[in-house]
């Protein structure tokens, strides 16, 4: 039993197909089939059975897949704790950031990584959570910050930040940073929101569904600057995390009020693909990104957020 076999197991479990697993792992299909066959010979029992939707894990397969995720996580964690010398960290790493976090993190992260590892090339990709998850699974980014993603056997996630969400309106609206709003009050407001499958919209829709409420959405846009522009035009309100609104509130351009965290809040996680070997460059970038976020919170530069990874 080796790491390649465990990654093949998880890829087949997620995709339900040896063919799609091979595409995901960027290797030929016979290699995946061989790794599965060797793994089944090693444990002495079938790990998959044919179902209506493709290959389904057997009970033995489910047990092994759960242990495989933990084993791969522990291996990556051990490698992350072994600090390499700067001169051996080279190549490139692509980091995915959410639009609401990119202004706060991108420049500091690139500068810090370049100072620590001069031979490392850092690429930043910015996108919404659904796109980041797809890019991560497709190998277009090496690690990414995202809202809690939909469950996937292909991803390893570590919760980092819990964020309060804020209603943003014009300065003359009855909004205060000290005045928490119930979800029922938020649902009655004329709202400018991103469309599904945007993470914040999904959170709000799920919370309203559980509370038997309906959002009053009057316009949809997936561009944060357009959300703010439409609010500034006076047609309604929008909902954003604190990191995206506090400068505007301090400058007097908008007013804001927090939504009750009992009703809705979002967690940001650091995600990596379990199906790919984590390079030294990726592990170093992940360590520094985690440390940078913690420093930003300690400095008060990320309003409305609390650190989770301790």
From TrEMBL:
Q: Which PANTHER family match?
A: NITROGEN ASSIMILATION REGULATORY PROTEIN NAC (PTHR30293:SF0), TRANSCRIPTIONAL REGULATORY PROTEIN NAC-RELATED (PTHR30293)
Coiled coil region boundaries: none
What is any one GO biological process for this UniProt entry? Answer: regulation of DNA-templated transcription initiation
> Per UniProt, which keywords does this protein have?
Activator, DNA-binding, Transcription, Transcription regulation
Domain HTH lysR-type, first and last residues per copy? 1-58
Family that this chain belongs to:
Belongs to the LysR transcriptional regulatory family.
* Protein name per the record: LysR family transcriptional regulator
Record bears the keyword Transcription: yes
Q: Which InterPro entries match?
A: LysR_HTH_N (IPR000847), LysR_subst-bd (IPR005119), WH-like_DNA-bd_sf (IPR036388), WH_DNA-bd_sf (IPR036390)
Q: What are the recorded GO MF terms, alphabetically?
A: DNA binding; DNA-binding transcription factor activity
């Amino acid at each position: 039993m080796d790491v390649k076999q465990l990654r093949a197991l998880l890829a087949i479990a997620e995709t339900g197909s040896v063919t799609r697993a091979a595409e995901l792992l960027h290797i030929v299909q016979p290699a995946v089939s061989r790794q599965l066959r060797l793994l089944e010979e090693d444990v002495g029992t079938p790990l998959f059975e044919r179902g209506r939707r493709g290959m389904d894990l057997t009970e033995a397969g489910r047990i092994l897949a759960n242990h495989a995720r933990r084993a791969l996580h522990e291996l990556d964690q051990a490698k992350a704790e072994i600090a390499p010398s700067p001169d051996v960290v080279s190549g490139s790493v692509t980091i995915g950031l959410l639009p609401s976090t990119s202004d706060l993190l991108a420049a500091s992260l690139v500068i810090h990584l370049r100072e620590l590892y001069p031979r490392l090339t850092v690429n930043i990709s910015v996108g919404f959570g659904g796109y980041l998850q797809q890019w991560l699974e497709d190998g277009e980014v090496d690690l990414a910050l995202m809202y809690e993603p939909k469950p996937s056997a292909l991803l390893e996630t570590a919760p980092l930040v819990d964020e309060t969400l804020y209603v943003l309106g014009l300065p003359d609206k009855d909004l205060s940073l000290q005045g928490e709003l119930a979800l029922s009050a938020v649902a009655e407001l004329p709202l400018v929101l991103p469309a599904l499958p945007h993470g914040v919209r999904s959170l709000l829709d799920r919370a309203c569904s559980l509370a038997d409420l309906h959002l009053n959405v009057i316009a949809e846009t997936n561009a944060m600057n357009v959300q703010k522009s439409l609010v500034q035009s006076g047609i309604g309100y929008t909902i954003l995390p604190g990191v995206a609104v506090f400068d505007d509130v301090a400058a007097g351009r908008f007013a804001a009020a927090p939504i009750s965290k009992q009703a809705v809040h979002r967690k940001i996680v650091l995600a990596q693909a379990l199906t790919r070997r984590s390079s030294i460059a990726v592990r170093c970038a992940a360590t520094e990104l985690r440390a940078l976020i913690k420093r930003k919170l300690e400095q008060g530069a990320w309003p409305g957020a609390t650190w989770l990874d301790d």
